[in-house]
């Protein structure tokens, strides 16, 4: 058998057909190997040398000490000096010396601490386990009397695969946190149920899937990833046809140990280690040697590009490949690591940032450090084309929000903090202009403790008097008392800002003159709608707190009772996906609302303009809007129907988190209400049919609007586009249903590569949207169910024909 494998392996590069014959998965049941039975009732105690070995002694199962007083229950290569771990049971919950793993009399393999608390157990679901065994393949098994394996470590891998191990649909590897910390980290390797082999970033530390950065592009075909006995790693279809070769032409497994591992840096690598060298002889290798042709992806620094996350290295840092092809994280000039022992935590500025109120005066205090072939591609605040490098430099120096400018081919991109997806690579091109304070000064804590209404001259006078003579001591005591009175007045003024207007509602009641001052007499308009105009403002007790002041028109102003009710209800809301109401003005004929200012503007600017948001960010926005509406409908003390969900009312913060805004026409439901009657509210194209039928409205009108918004997020286009060439595509809701019905949902995202690679989710989202826009409100799901369907907790059944989209188009 060994000879056949070696001969066939020689033919691998020359014929995919012959390769298929060589590397078909071979069965390796427990009966094919010699092994030592571990009988029921035996146990191991966490110590430095307690383990169960395979017959050859090449592998061991037991405890390895990985911290001062922390042990992993693990499997490792036992004949090499490194004792390299390939599997562990309790990577996130280390046990202490003296804790035990025991093969119980009922066949359960259980890891308990000394108090009897269960840390981990092998799930054999009540099967009749007769014994355990550590096999020479590196597989630890629990088996029946007839040698049928009921549980295998091979079926529950940690971050490593071995020869003879297969990786079926639904299986995953999760990288360790660092080279020294084996707890779960930031990357996942999985064979999805749709047959696609994918590398994902994870939302650390919760571990949910974030963004893919490599895939085999085998949707509908991939069935099994195999690491065969010859050391080849490949993805095969259900009929055995090879689809993708991940690693081929390796040295023989008879002479080398092999392992394939998803490492902490996010790269899947195939390593080998010679078996034949005497461990005591000079020249015994100190580390595993990688098969350089099998790095996936080839360049992790440029492969990861995601809106939600920091990239291959931490925020404000950049990634570059070393000579060993491993990524290195570095800080740009003027920055240092937050934690030198954990560079993935990112970097911090070593200097005081530019003061936005005095940006023009502070321009000369900063300079731009140049670094070639470096970029942070998704940290843009602004983009300018057909400009010179000198223009780009001046633009960044005069902009307090600009931390870095990128100049490339006549284009200038301003970058804001935190900088993400940093990379240094010849393929990047251009140059980064990194803003640094010339004196590299740091903040003086004493200055921050001085209230703004105390002038520096007063402090200087006090210091001078102290130096002049001790005779003035009494005078200084009097002056100090006077300053304390001023400070008390300042704190009292600040406190008045934070007092609630009604019990349970922490809002500030502004006077109209205060808001006139805050907005510079309503000088800078941020936007306007059917019921209000919004202006930018600055609160006077904290000049760095920017706000959005909404001035309601007369029609809304006249409804004083409803205005007060809505202010108090919205003031009680507290959710990360809802805009925060800070205060209001209800003075005479003036009705104004004061909100936190969300700097990235509204979703429409990014959904229908350029550049557009990528598929994965649009997906996260859909989650955020759904969760915010679920909160309004079911988790508020007073149920709120928003009535006007549309892209213009979804704001995006610095991390592009969705924040629902504009409650100006929201409708409140009392505790005993499920529906209400009201005049038509909302925006054409997003209105549910019941608005036009004079029927009572419920929270289901928001569900309908969300369905239209979800379709726009999927397709990155407006619901109604009369200028399209194909008349069938004019109304997005019509077109989306037709595509879904005909099995052509791919047409909706034909120009979106990321979405095309995630078609299973695209189809699911289209189905959810169609459920949401059903003409009959009773058929529409609640926002709670919509949220669960989006997140994958609840299955999505096939939706019926929505029947009528008249409400979406009749008013155009």
Automatic annotation (TrEMBL):
ATP binds at residue 550. Residues 520-806 form the Protein kinase domain. Its EC number is 2.7.11.1. Keywords: ATP-binding, Disulfide bond, EGF-like domain, Glycoprotein, Kinase, Lectin, Membrane, Nucleotide-binding, Receptor, Serine/threonine-protein kinase, Signal, Transferase, Transmembrane, Transmembrane helix. It comes from the Eukaryota. It is a single-pass type I membrane protein. Residues 1-32 form the signal peptide. InterPro entries: Bulb-type_lectin_dom, Bulb-type_lectin_dom_sf, G-type_lectin_kinases/EP1-like, Kinase-like_dom_sf, Prot_kinase_dom, Protein_kinase_ATP_BS, Ser/Thr_kinase_AS, SRK-like_kinase. Residues 37-155 form the Bulb-type lectin domain. One of its GO terms (cellular component) is membrane. It is found in: Membrane. GO terms for molecular function: ATP binding; carbohydrate binding; protein kinase activity; protein serine kinase activity; protein serine/threonine kinase activity. It catalyses: L-seryl-[protein] + ATP = O-phospho-L-seryl-[protein] + ADP + H(+); L-threonyl-[protein] + ATP = O-phospho-L-threonyl-[protein] + ADP + H(+). PANTHER family: G-TYPE LECTIN S-RECEPTOR-LIKE SERINE/THREONINE-PROTEIN KINASE SD2-5, G-TYPE LECTIN S-RECEPTOR-LIKE SERINE_THREONINE-PROTEIN KINASE LECRK1. Belongs to the protein kinase superfamily. Ser/Thr protein kinase family. This is Receptor-like serine/threonine-protein kinase. The lineage of its organism: Eukaryota, Viridiplantae, Streptophyta, Embryophyta, Tracheophyta.
